[in-house]
Write a structure and sequence with these properties.
The complex is a heterodimer of chains A (about 60) and B (about 1000). By secondary structure, chain A is mostly helical. Chain A is built from 3 helices and no strands. The radius of gyration of chain A is 25 Å and the shape is rod-shaped. Chain B is of the alpha/beta class. Chain B has 31 helices and 38 strands. In chain B, the strands form 11 sheets. In chain B, strands 6-5-17-16-15-7-8 form a 7-stranded mixed β-sheet, with helices on both faces. Chain B is globular. Classes of the chains: A mainly alpha (about 60), B alpha/beta (about 1000). The interface between A and B is large, with 35 and 52 residues.
C-alpha cells in the first residue's frame, strides 16, 4: 500500500534535498549575516522611526 | 451556505435562533452546528505547517526530513532571533516615567456630538480611550468609534507634509500660495468658500467669526452628510432654528421611537440612563417601556418591548394620527395646530394592530410628561415634525431642546456647487470634509470644483476631495490638537496628548495664519488664542490648568428652550403619505465607517455590525417577505437601481425589516485609503437632493444580478447547538418564575474543590441592560492588542475578538424579538480547556483566572475544541509580526502581541488586575471593590458588565450573583464558569408593568 501512495522518485529526492538545504541556508544567514540592506518589499518610509514627543502645555490627570 | 426561506406553513423552530439557517433548520445548519469549525477555518494540515493535505509524504521521507531538519535546527537554535535593544532615555521628558501610564482629559467630536474622553498614554503614546469620568453627562463612558479613533492617530496613510500638485513642499511655500489667493479675493471682492464639519466649539466659532470679519466675502458651510438633512429641515420648520435634541431617558416611563436608533452606542449619556432603568433587582422596581415603529431593524428596535415594522414614509402619518387621537382624548394641541390635512391617506390598523395601537395611546396618555417621542435623524422631515408635536402635546420632560449651530443641507451644498460651476468663487477650502465622496452628484461636483481657481484641502488622510485639490495641508489628529466644545452640562477642553508625529498643524492654526495674512493681528497659535478666550469668557475663578486637568468646566449654559410652532404642522401633515411604486430605500450611516470618515479604521471595519453581524462590507438588507418574492438568497448579488443610479452589491435577508423596505449603509465604497479602498459599495449617489426626505428614497428597484458573494458575517460562527444559552423574561415571569423552566443542575465532580486563598475574580453581565452596541468589543481590541484579520479570514470564522456579542432572535421571521449576549472566556473553575492542553499552556491562577502562557502554547487547538463556549481564538496566520511603525505605536505594552500558531482568549484584563494589586500592595491596603475594571466593563456605556472579587461578600458582584435573574451558561456541563448572566427583561403591556 505504501508503494502505491508514494510520489515519484524525483519528487522525493527534491524534497529530501531542498528542505535541509533551505533550512541550512537560513541558519547560516542568521549566524553570519552578510546582507544588512533593507528588503526591497519593505517600503523605506515604514522603516523611518517616528519620534514620539510629549505634548506641550498639556496637564495630565494622573500618572 | 445557501438558505432557502420556508415556502409554506409554520415550522417547529427553536425558541432562540441567530441565523435564518438555524430558524428553518436546514440540513446544512444542523451539520454546521454539529461541526466544530466553519468549513475552511481549520486547515486539513497545511497552511499552518506548510504541507499540502494528503501530501503523500511517506513515513520514511518524513523521518529523513525530520532528522536532517533536527540537525540544522540545533544550529539555528544558537541564534537569538528578533533581538532588540532597550536603551534608557538620554533625556527623559519630565512627564514620562517608563512603565507608568499617564492620563490626559481631552475631547473628540463626531458630527454634532462631542465625547469628553480620558486618554491613556504609555511612554508618550496615546493607546486607549475611555470617557471622562468628571463629565456629569457621560460619566466615564464613550462610544465605540471614539475609542477606536486612537488607531487613526497611527494610520500609515496620514499625510505627513504639505503637498501642491502632488509635490511635497514646506509650510511657508504652501501657506504663501493660499494667502496670496485670499488676499486677491479680498481685493477683488470675490467670495471664498469654506466647507467644514459641524461647529461644536465656541472658540472655533469665534475664530471663524474673526476670519469672516477679516474676509467679508467668506462663505462658511458646516456640512455633515450623515447628520440627516430631514432633522435639520424639520427643526427649522418646527422651532424656526436649528435645534439639538437630547433624550433624558432617566425621566422617561414610556418611549416611542419613530425609527430613532438612540441605543446604537453613539450616545453614552442615553445608554447610561437606559441601563439604569433596566438593571432591576426586583420585579417591583419601576421600569420604562419602549415602543418602536421602524423600517430597518435597529439596535433600539432590538431592545424594544413592542416593535412594529413600518415603512419610514408612513411614520409621519402614524405619528400625526397618534397626535389626533391623543388630542381627542384630551391632550391639548399647541396653538395654531391644524391636522385636517391628515384625514386622507391614513387608515388605522394597517401598520400597527388595533389593540397595540390602543395600548400605545393609553401608555402615552398615562405617562404624560414622562413620555417622549424620538425620531431617527434619517427619517422624513414630516415624521420629525410629528414627533415635535407629540412632545409638545405631552409636555415631555424626557427630552431637552437647545439651540444648535446650523448645518448645511443638501440644498445649501447644491447652491454652492452651482456657484462653483458658475465661476463665482475665487477659492475653496475643504476642512475635514470629503464632499467629492459624500455629495450625491459626484460628477457634477467634480466639474464644478474644477472651475474654482484655487482649491485647498485640510485633512488627515488624502481622500477623494484631496485628489481634486491643488493644495493639501496635513492636519493634526485631534489627540495632537487644542480645542473646546459646548455640551449641555459642561464646557469641555480638548488638549493634545502627544506631540505632533509628523509635520502637521491643526486647522485652526491655518486659519490664524490666514487672519494674519489678511491684515489682522491674531494670537501666535491656537493654544494662545484658546487660552485667552477661556480666561476671558469661560473660566470663572478657576484656572486654565485646573480645567485642563479636569478636561472641563462644569455648568449648564443658560439658553432659552426653543418653542414649538403649531402653525408648522398643517404643511407637514399634508405631505405624510406618498404612494409610489417600487421599494423604499433607507440610507443610514454605517456602524463602522459612520459617514465614511472611519472607513480606514480596521478595528471598526472588523467589528461586526450589531444587527447584521457583517464585517468589511455593506450589503443591501432585504426584508424576509421581499426576499421570498424576489427569490433572493443570502449573499446573492443584486442590482439596486433608483432614478438612473445603479449599484451591484450583495444582499442579506434581515428578519424584522419592514416589507417593501431596503436598507443600505453609507460610508463604504471609498476609493482611497489602504484599508478603506474597495470595501463595500458607495451608497451616497442614492441620497436625495430634497432635504426633507434625503435618506428615505421611494421607487427603488431590486433585481437578481447573478453570482454570489461569501459574506464575512460572524453571526453563524461559534454555534452552540440550540442549548439553553440565553434567557429572556417578561416582567410577569420575573415576578413569578424568575428561573422559568430551568432547573439548577446538581453538579457532581471527581475533582477536588479548588481553593482561592486571596481573591476569586468573577463577572456579572446583565442582559437586560446590554443593548448590544459593541463598545466592549472595541474597548477589548484596543486594550488587548487583538489583531485584525481581514474579510477573507473572517469569512472562514477566524476573527480574533476576545469578546463577541451573540445576537439571538426569538419568534417569527417577520418581526422577531431580539436578545444580545456578550460572550467571552468564562474563566471556568473546572475549565475543560485546561485539562486537554498537552503543554499546560492554559492553566488556572490562584485567584480564579484561566490564564494563557503564550510562549508555552504549541498550537494543538485541543483547548478550542474542548471549550463549550467557543471563545478561544487561534492565530492561524501571522497577523502582527509584519506591522511596523506607526501602527505598532498603538500597542498596549502591558499585553503580549501574539504570533502565529498561538491560542489566545480573554484574560479578564489580567494586566489591569496586577496593576491594581501592585498599587494596593505599595500603599499597604487591600483592593477596593470596583477598583479593578476590565476594558469591557469600563467601555460598557449601559453598565451591563460588573467585574469584581467574589470572595468579598460586600462587593457589588457578590450581591449580583445571588439575584433571582442570575444564571450561568451551560451550567450543566459542570465547568463552573466565573461569569454569571442576569436574564434579559422585556416589559410588554401584557406581562409587564403598567407604564405609569
Amino acid at each position: 500500500m505504501a508503494d502505491a501512495d508514494r510520489k515519484p522518485l524525483l519528487d522525493r529526492a527534491a524534497a529530501l534535498l531542498a528542505g535541509p538545504f533551505l533550512l541550512g541556508r537560513q541558519a547560516l544567514s542568521l549566524v553570519f549575516p552578510s546582507d544588512l540592506e533593507t528588503p526591497s518589499e519593505v517600503p523605506a518610509l515604514a522603516l523611518q522611526r517616528i519620534s514620539v514627543t510629549p505634548p506641550e502645555h498639556a496637564i495630565k490627570r494622573r500618572g | 451556505m445557501k438558505t432557502r426561506l420556508p415556502d409554506h406553513g409554520p415550522v417547529e423552530a427553536p425558541r432562540f435562533w441567530r441565523t435564518l439557517e438555524e430558524r428553518v433548520e436546514t440540513p446544512e445548519a444542523r451539520q454546521a452546528a454539529h461541526d466544530e469549525f466553519l468549513p475552511g477555518a481549520v486547515p486539513a494540515y497545511d497552511d499552518v505547517h506548510g504541507l499540502p493535505p494528503q501530501s503523500g509524504v511517506s513515513r520514511r521521507d518524513f523521518l529523513g526530513l525530520v532528522s536532517a531538519a533536527a540537525a540544522l535546527a540545533a544550529t539555528v537554535g544558537c541564534d537569538r532571533k528578533g533581538q532588540g535593544t532597550v536603551v534608557p532615555y538620554t533625556k527623559r521628558p519630565v512627564e514620562v516615567t517608563p512603565g507608568v501610564a499617564n492620563y490626559y482629559a481631552s475631547a473628540f467630536q463626531e458630527g454634532r456630538r462631542v465625547y469628553p474622553v480620558l486618554v491613556k498614554t504609555r511612554e508618550g503614546r496615546p493607546i486607549h480611550l475611555t470617557g471622562n469620568d468628571e463629565h456629569p453627562g457621560v460619566r466615564g463612558k464613550t462610544s465605540p468609534r471614539a475609542m477606536a479613533d486612537v488607531l487613526r492617530l497611527y494610520d500609515p496613510d496620514r499625510l505627513r507634509a504639505p503637498k501642491a500638485e502632488g509635490r511635497t513642499l514646506g509650510w511657508t511655500e504652501a501657506e504663501a500660495r493660499l494667502h496670496g489667493a485670499l488676499q486677491a479675493a479680498k481685493a477683488t471682492g470675490k467670495p471664498v468658500l469654506l466647507l467644514s464639519g459641524a461647529v461644536a466649539s465656541p472658540t472655533r466659532k469665534a475664530l471663524l467669526a474673526d476670519l469672516k470679519a477679516a474676509l467679508p466675502t467668506l462663505e462658511h458651510l458646516a456640512y455633515e452628510p450623515a447628520a440627516g438633512d430631514a432633522a435639520e429641515e424639520a427643526a427649522r420648520a418646527s422651532y424656526g432654528q436649528s435645534v439639538a435634541i437630547q433624550p433624558r431617558l432617566a425621566k422617561a416611563k414610556v418611549i416611542l421611537s419613530l425609527g430613532a436608533d438612540f441605543l446604537n452606542g453613539e450616545d453614552p449619556e442615553t445608554l447610561a440612563a437606559w441601563g439604569a432603568q433596566r438593571r432591576l433587582k426586583s420585579a417591583k422596581e419601576p421600569i420604562n417601556r419602549l415602543w418602536v415603529l421602524e423600517g430597518p431593524l435597529t439596535l433600539t428596535g432590538t431592545n424594544a418591548d413592542h416593535r412594529y415594522p413600518v415603512a419610514p414614509s408612513r411614520l409621519a402619518a402614524l405619528a400625526f394620527a397618534l397626535a389626533r387621537e391623543l388630542a381627542a382624548k384630551g391632550l391639548p394641541l399647541p396653538a395654531g395646530t391644524d391636522l385636517s390635512a391628515l384625514a386622507a391617506g391614513f387608515s388605522e390598523g394597517v401598520d400597527v394592530p388595533a389593540k397595540a395601537w390602543a395600548n400605545l395611546v393609553k401608555d402615552l396618555r398615562h405617562a404624560g410628561r414622562n413620555a417622549v417621542v424620538l425620531c431617527g435623524a434619517q427619517m422624513p422631515a414630516a415624521a420629525h415634525q410629528a414627533a415635535h408635536l407629540l412632545n409638545a402635546m405631552l409636555g415631555s420632560e424626557a427630552v431637552a431642546l437647545s439651540p444648535a449651530e446650523p448645518l448645511a443641507t443638501t440644498k445649501d451644498v447644491e447652491a454652492a456647487v452651482q456657484g462653483m460651476a458658475a465661476g463665482r468663487y475665487a477659492a475653496a477650502i475643504f476642512w475635514d470634509v470629503n464632499p467629492a465622496y459624500t455629495y450625491a452628484r459626484a460628477a457634477a461636483w467634480k466639474d464644478a470644483l474644477a472651475k474654482v481657481p484655487l482649491r485647498a484641502w485640510v485633512g488627515l488622510m488624502e481622500d477623494e476631495t484631496a485628489a481634486q485639490c491643488q493644495l493639501l495641508f496635513p492636519e493634526n489628529h485631534w489627540l495632537e490638537s487644542w480645542g473646546d466644545y459646548s455640551t449641555p452640562s459642561a464646557t469641555v477642553l480638548q488638549q493634545p496628548t502627544v506631540g505632533t508625529l509628523y509635520d502637521t498643524r491643526q486647522g485652526e492654526d491655518l486659519l490664524l495664519g490666514m487672519l494674519k495674512a489678511l491684515g489682522a493681528a491674531p494670537a501666535a497659535d491656537y493654544h494662545t488664542y484658546l487660552r485667552a478666550r477661556w480666561e476671558k469668557a469661560v473660566l470663572q475663578g478657576g484656572t486654565f490648568e485646573q480645567a485642563l486637568h479636569d478636561g472641563l468646566v462644569k455648568g449648564d449654559p443658560k439658553t432659552a428652550s426653543p418653542v414649538f410652532k403649531g402653525t408648522s404642522v398643517a404643511a407637514a401633515a399634508g405631505r405624510t403619505v406618498k404612494g409610489s411604486e417600487g421599494l423604499e430605500l433607507v440610507l443610514f450611516p454605517g456602524f463602522a465607517p459612520h459617514d465614511g470618515r472611519h472607513a480606514n479604521n480596521s478595528w471598526l471595519q472588523e467589528t461586526p455590525d450589531p444587527i447584521s453581524k457583517m464585517t468589511w462590507d455593506n450589503p443591501v438588507a432585504v426584508s424576509v417577505q421581499d426576499a421570498q418574492a424576489l427569490g433572493i438568497q443570502e449573499g446573492d448579488f443584486v442590482t439596486l437601481s433608483l432614478e438612473g443610479t445603479t449599484l451591484r452589491l450583495p444582499a442579506v435577508i434581515q428578519p424584522g425589516q419592514a416589507k417593501g423596505v431596503l436598507a443600505l449603509a453609507l460610508g463604504y465604497g471609498r476609493t482611497t485609503g489602504g484599508v478603506a479602498k474597495g470595501v463595500g459599495a458607495n451608497a451616497y449617489p442614492f441620497l436625495g437632493l430634497d432635504p426633507t426626505t434625503a435618506n428615505v428614497r421611494p421607487g427603488a428597484r431590486l433585481t437578481k444580478a447573478g453570482g454570489r458573494k461569501e459574506l464575512s458575517r460572524t453571526q453563524s460562527h461559534h454555534r452552540m447547538e440550540g442549548r439553553d444559552i440565553v434567557r429572556s423574561l417578561t416582567m410577569d415571569e420575573f415576578l413569578h418564575h424568575p428561573q422559568g423552566h430551568h432547573h439548577q443542575p446538581e453538579l457532581v465532580t471527581l475533582y477536588e474543590e479548588q481553593k482561592f486563598p486571596d481573591h476569586k475574580w468573577g463577572m456579572v453581565i446583565d442582559l437586560a441592560a446590554c443593548v448590544g452596541c459593541s463598545a466592549c468589543v472595541v474597548a477589548c481590541q484596543s486594550e488587548n492588542n487583538v489583531p485584525v484579520v481581514g474579510a477573507e479570514q473572517v469569512a472562514k470564522g477566524r476573527e480574533m475578538h476576545w469578546i463577541r456579542i451573540d445576537r439571538y432572535y426569538e419568534g417569527e421571521l417577520e418581526n422577531p424579538k431580539v436578545v444580545h449576549q456578550p460572550m467571552l472566556c468564562q474563566h471556568c473553575d473546572s475549565a475543560p480547556c485546561e485539562n486537554v492542553c498537552p503543554v499546560n499552556a492554559t492553566n488556572h491562577s490562584p485567584d480564579g483566572l484561566n490564564q494563557m502562557a503564550y510562549n508555552r502554547c504549541v498550537g494543538t487547538r485541543y483547548c478550542a475544541n474542548n471549550c463549550p463556549y467557543k471563545v478561544r481564538r487561534f492565530n492561524f496566520l501571522e497577523y502582527t509580526a509584519y506591522k511596523t511603525e506607526p501602527e505598532t505605536l498603538a500597542y498596549n505594552p502591558e499585553v503580549t502581541v501574539r504570533p502565529r500558531g498561538v491560542m489566545e482568549k480573554c484574560s479578564f484584563c489580567v494586566q489591569r488586575i496586577n496593576d491594581v494589586k501592585i498599587r494596593a500592595k505599595g500603599e499597604g491596603r487591600s483592593i477596593l471593590d470596583g477598583e479593578v475594571t476590565t476594558a469591557c466593563m469600563a467601555g460598557c456605556p449601559s453598565d451591563a458588565i460588573v467585574f469584581g472579587d467574589l470572595k468579598d461578600p460586600k462587593s457589588r458582584i457578590a450581591q449580583l450573583v445571588t439575584a433571582t435573574r442570575a444564571y450561568k451558561v451551560l451550567e450543566e456541563v459542570g465547568a463552573k464558569p466565573a461569569i454569571t448572566y442576569l436574564a434579559d427583561l422585556k416589559n410588554p403591556v401584557e406581562g409587564g408593568h403598567h407604564a405609569n
